[in-house]
Every structure is written in structure tokens, then in C-alpha cells.
Amino acid sequence: MPHTDARDLDELETEIVGCCACPRLVAWREVVARERRAAFRDETYWGKPVPGFGDRRARVLLVGLAPAAHGGNRTGRVFTGDRSGDFLFASMFRTGYANQPESTGLRDGLRLRDSYIAAAVRCAPPANKPTPAERDECRPFLAREIELLTRVRVIVALGAFGYEAAWSVLKTGVHPGVELPARRPRFGHGLEVRCGRMTILGTFHPSQQNTFTGRLTPAMLDAVFERARYLTSASTSPTA
Questions:
Q1: Which of 36, 40, 130, 162 is a good FRET partner for 154, with 20 to 30 A between their CA atoms?
Q2: Looking at the DSSP assignment, which residues form a beta bridge with residue 202?
Q3: Element (H, E) at 193
Q4: What is the pLDDT of residue 6?
Q5: Where are the domains of the chain?
Q6: What is the CATH number of domain 6-235?
Q7: What is the pLDDT averaged over residues 157-179?
């Protein structure tokens, strides 16, 4: 099994943080960082693209939509400092993928285990809705993360947008051992798609729209991570 070269991921992170390819996103992320929300008026916002985060030997890769304007765009870490992250990391803690249930800032001590989190779009978009062109502009970043995270065997798609982003990367055929079905299955919570050496698992996004209404419960998200654990364990067993 080839090992991840930390220098390559460091270089990719630097490239992501320095990206200014999408004028609309650049303008929005910087406006939000200057004006700030009243609750965070004394904080210095990150206000730049947000790189991936986690265990560089991860077998599980999570793909979300984009940083939240006052979450990742404020803190500099994906799913950090907002309600979606609170829900997500609590589940990852319960299922053994994180060392603590909170994610509040870059120096909060959070460490991920066997998991890595990335976003389909790296800048906070207005109304949380990237355009197709912005999504496509960011696609090479996710493609390179999948290439560099050589141990990944399960991709957890956090919502339909994350699913579409992961699928569009894998269908290029450049990742060894990955074979997609002829037709893309429709997204839904609990979706499971075998793709050769990888499996895509789908879950509703841990947004307040889903968690406050009960569309996504803690037990539902825990079950997805437990399934990921089973699949990665099976893929490394002597009889797999």
C-alpha cells in the first residue's frame, strides 16, 4: 500500500488557500469576513478558501458542499464553528472517527481518526449555492485529494451536492481500481454504491434544515459511519 506523501498534501493545501479563480466567491467570502456576524464581531475571519482536514492515512473520505459563511469561512476549517459541524463531529466522536465531539476552531485539539473531510467547493458561496461553473472550477482539488489519499476505500457523500461532486471526479477514470456503474444511482440517505475498490455511501447533509426537522437523526448518521467502519475493515481483512 503506497503511503501518502505529506509534502504533496501540504502543497495542495497551499494551492487551495491561495485560489482566486471564482470572482463571485472571492467577493462574497471577503465581504462576509469584513462585515462579520454580530456574534463574532471581535474575531478575525479566515476569509479564504478552506482546505481539507483530517487523517492523511484515512480510509474514509467525507465530501460536503462548501464552507459556511460564518463557519469554515470564519474559522478556516471545514465544518467548524457552525451547527452542521456540531452535529457531524458529535456523530464522528460517537463512532470513533474523532477524538472529541466539538469543532470550534483551529486550535481546539480536534483530531480525526481514519477519516478526512473535504468540500466540493472551497469558498463560502452566497445563499450556500455554488454555480455549476464554480463547482467545476474546484473539481481538480477533490480529484487530487482522492489521488493523494491512497488508503481511501469509502467516500461518505454529505448530501446530494457532495455525491455529485464525488461521482464527477471518479467517473474520469483516472483513479486506479475505481469502476463506476453504467448509470449513477439516485441519491438518498443510506445509498451504497460499489465502485471497484471504493464504495460511496450517501447521507443527508447535517444542515439544520435536516437535523432540526428530524429528517436526519443522530442514529441515522451514526449508522452511516458504522457501515463505513465495517466496509473498511472488510477491505483489509485476509479474506476480503
A1: 130
A2: 157
A3: strand 192-195
A4: 64
A5: 6-235
A6: 3.40.470.10
A7: 93
